[in-house]
Amino acid sequence: MSSSERPAEAPPAGSEILRFPNGSIIPDTSAPPSSVVQMVSYFARTTPDATALQSEAEAISYGELEAQANQLAHYLRSLGVGTDVLVGLCLERSVAMVVAALAIMKAGGAYLPLDPAYPAERLAYMLEDSRVPVLITRNAISRTLATGKRTVVELDHRTSEIARQPRTALDAAQSGKDLAYVIYTSGSDGHPKGAQITHAGLLNLILWHQRAFHITAADRASQLASMSFDAAVWELWPYLASGASVTFCDEMTRLTPQSLHAWLLNKQITIGFVPTALAERLMTMEWPSHCSLRTLLTGADTLHRYPASNLPFQVVNNYGPTECTVVTTSGVVPPRGNNESQPSIGRPIDNVEVHILDEALKPVAPGASGELCIGGAGLARGYLHRPDLDQEKFISHPLLAGARLYRTGDLARQLPNGEIEFIGRRDGQIKIRGFRVEPNEIVSLLDQHPGVQASMVIAREDVGDSKQLIAYVVPVPDSELTHTSLIEFSRERLPDYMVPAIFVRMDTLPLNHNGKVDRTQLPLPDAGNIIGDGKRSSPQNAIEARIVAILSELLGVPGIGTQDNFFFLGGHSLLGTQLIARLRDSFGVELSLRRIFDSPTAAELAVEIETRLSKISPAAD
Fold first, then answer.
1. What are phi and psi of 62, to 5 degrees?
2. Which residues pair with residue 459 across a beta bridge?
3. Looking at the domain assignment, is residue 39 inside a domain?
4. Is the backbone of residue 471 left (phi > 0), alpha (psi -120 to 50) or beta?
5. Of the residues 352, 383, 412, which one is the last residue of a structural domain?
6. CATH number assigned to the domain comprising residue 581
7. DSSP alpha helices (H): ranges in 156-226?
8. Which is the most buried residue in 34, 56, 68, 621, by most CB within 10 A?
C-alpha cells in the first residue's frame, strides 16, 4: 500500500483565511516564501504591534520580536554563524528562547535545542557530539554545563553588546536545502542521535498547517512542549508565520489536566497541541458550549479514546517521527459511541508519501500490515555525523529512482476508508509520555552500574494506571543493589522520562531458543522481586494505611512503605493528578500538585491530610 492523499479537512474556523497564489498567506506573488524567517518578517512589517508571544511574565510584539532577533542575528554573524552552522540553544521555555531560535535562523544557521532540565552528562554528550561552535544560554545554566572550547553567549551577560547591533534584518535568504534545526532522539546504540531538518521540510509543515486548520492572525495558540521535543516546532512556527499569537503555559499548569483545562479557557486558546495522555483526560472533562478552543491537536503516543459528540471542539490525531518534520499523517477523530478499535492516525499531510511495505520493501496488499515508510517533503537530511545510521534508516526509494524513504520501524495498515491504523513496533522502541525511547539506551546505561551484571527494560501497561518503564536487573554476585542507588545512577545520566519506574531483581534473564531475552517470560513486579532499600516502614495509623493502599494500586507496586518516595516508585505529574483525585475521594481534601512534589511520601501526605482534616472538623469541646 502507498498513499500521498491529503488528510481530512478541518471544518471552517469561522473566519476566512486570505490565501495568495503562492500557497502561503504572504502576498508575494513573485515567489513563494523560502523560510519561516521571511514569513515572520512579513507580519513584523504589516502588524508590528500585534502580540507574537506572551507568558505570565512578559509579552512581545511582532515588531519587537523581529528587532530583537535581528540584533542577536547580527551578533551571531560576527561570531561566524552562517549557512548550516549549528548553534546550541540551552534556555528554559520562554520568549527569549524563541527570539534566540529565530535569530539563529536569521543569521543563516540552524538551532539545536538543549533542555536545561536534562542531566549534565547527557547535555555534555549532545554538545560534544553535535560539535556546535556557538552555544546560547544564560549564566546560571552555563555554570552547570561542560561548555568546552566553543563560544558561549550568555544572554544576560551580553545584553549591552547585543543591544548595540542593528535592528534591521540581515540579507540572508535561506535555501530549502539549508538546515533549520536539529533535534536529538533516543538511540538504540546507547546514545541519542540528532535528526537534521531542513527549511523545505519546516516550510511544508507550516503551509500544510495553515491550510488544514484555517490559521489566521486572530488565532491564539498554546505552547506546552519542551524545545527539545519536536512538538515545540509545531507549536511555534506555523503560528508565528501566520501573524497569530502564542501563549506559554507555566510549568505546573501544563502538567495538570484540571489546571490546563482552566488555563485553555481563561486564555481563550483557539488551537493547541497536547500530548496524548493529557488529551485523553481533557476529552473527559466538561467544556462550555461556546469556548474559544476549536481544535485540540494531539499525538506522540497511541490514542485510545474517541471524543464525546458534545465536545465543542474537534480532536485531531497526528503521527510523525522527528526525522520527518513533526507530522506525517493527520486526521480528525470522529465521535463514536464505542471504543472497539482505536482511532486511526489519519492520512498523509500535503507533499508527504506514506508506504506500507513488507520485509522485501514491496507494497503490501490493502488491509495487510507492514512497515510504515515515509518519503516526500518532510524528510530529514539525515542524522548528524552518523552516515552509518543514514544508510540503515534512510533507504533508496524502491518505487521512485533517486528518492529516499525513512524506515520508521512502525507497523501499520491501511483501513478500508483510506486512513492508516498504527499497530505497533517491529522492534523494542516504545513511547513514554509522548517521548520516543530506545530501551537499549537505558540498558546500556544500567549495565555500566558497578552492581549490575545484566539488564532488560520494557514498558508495561499492566502495572498501575499508566504505561511504566520496568527494568529487570541481574545483580553482580554479593553486591548490595538498592533502589536508591539505581535511581540516582539513572537520573544523573538520563532524562526523567527515561528513568525506569520499577527495578525487578532477577537471577538470570529468560532466553528464547535464539538466545535473545524472552520478554514474554519477564515476571510482573511484586513484593518479592522489586528491588528496594531494605526494610520498609509500615503504616502507623489508618490514614497512612489508606494512602499506602492508594499508592500501591495507582503505581502497581505492592508493599510500599510510608517513607517511599512517590516519584522514585514511578510516579510522575500525570499520575500525580490521579493521586490527587483519589486522595480527594478518600479524605475529602484537595491537594495541589505542588504539595505532592513537596510531600511525596505516604507519611508526609498523612501529616498534610491530618492537618487539613483538623481544620475542616475541629475536635468537639
1. -65, -40
2. 469
3. no
4. beta
5. 352
6. 1.10.1200.10
7. 159-163, 199-212
8. 68
CB 307 within 8 A of CB 316: no
- Four-CA torsion 18, 22, 26, 29, nearest 10 degrees: -110
CB atoms within 10 A of CB 15: 10
Provide the number of structural domains found in the chain. 3
Give every CB contact of residue 256 below 8 A, 6+ residues apart in sequence: 573, 576, 577, 593
pLDDT digit string, tens, across residues 361-397: 999 988 888 999 999 999 999 999 999 999 999 999 9
Strands (E), 320-451: 329-333, 347-348, 352-357, 370-376, 382-383, 394-396, 404-414, 420-425, 430-432, 435-437
What domain range includes position 444? 438-519
Specify the amino acid at residue 142. Answer: S
Whether residues 200 and 88 share a domain: the answer is: yes
Asked if residue 286 belongs to a domain, the reply is yes
Residue 221 has a CB neighbour count (10 Å cut-off) of 23
Please check whether residue 617 is in contact with residue 600, taking contact to mean a CB–CB distance below 8 angstroms: no
Instruction: Quote the cell numbers at residue 97.
Output: 528562547
Residues 308 and 448 in one domain: no
* Domain endpoint, select from 320, 352, 384: 352
pLDDT digits (tens, 9 = 90+) for 241-295: 999 999 999 888 887 888 899 999 999 999 999 988 789 889 989 999 889 999 9
Cβ atoms of residues 433 and 275 within 8 Å: yes
List, edge to edge, every strand of the sheet that includes 329-333: 59-61, 51-54, 245-248, 220-223, 271-275, 295-299, 314-319, 329-333, 347-348
Whether residue 285 sits in one domain with residue 212 = yes
How far is residue 607's CA from residue 613's CA, in Å, rounded to a whole number? 10
